[in-house]
Amino acid sequence: MPDAGRLAVSGVGRGRFTSVYRGTGRVFGVKFRSGAFLPFLGAPVSGLTGVVVAAEQLWGSRPLRRRRR
């Protein structure tokens, strides 16, 4: 699991799961239709089945930098 405060991509799960979040922070989830994540990943999402990967491992840190307000 990536460090707290980092963006992560979770592949297709192999079963039901539960996550418990404590403290403060934000969680945002998006569920894609079959094949819809391919343009973002550039490879079949089946390669992420059952794993959670730090977004920086997939795309590097540059496009994920937070915009200052």
From TrEMBL:
Residues annotated as domain DUF6597: 8-53
Family matches, as InterPro entries: DUF6597
Parts of the chain that traverse the membrane: 36-59
Pfam families found in the cross-reference section: DUF6597
Keywords from the UniProt entry: Membrane, Transmembrane, Transmembrane helix
Protein name per its UniProtKB record: DUF6597 domain-containing protein
Organism for this UniProt entry: Pseudonocardia bannensis
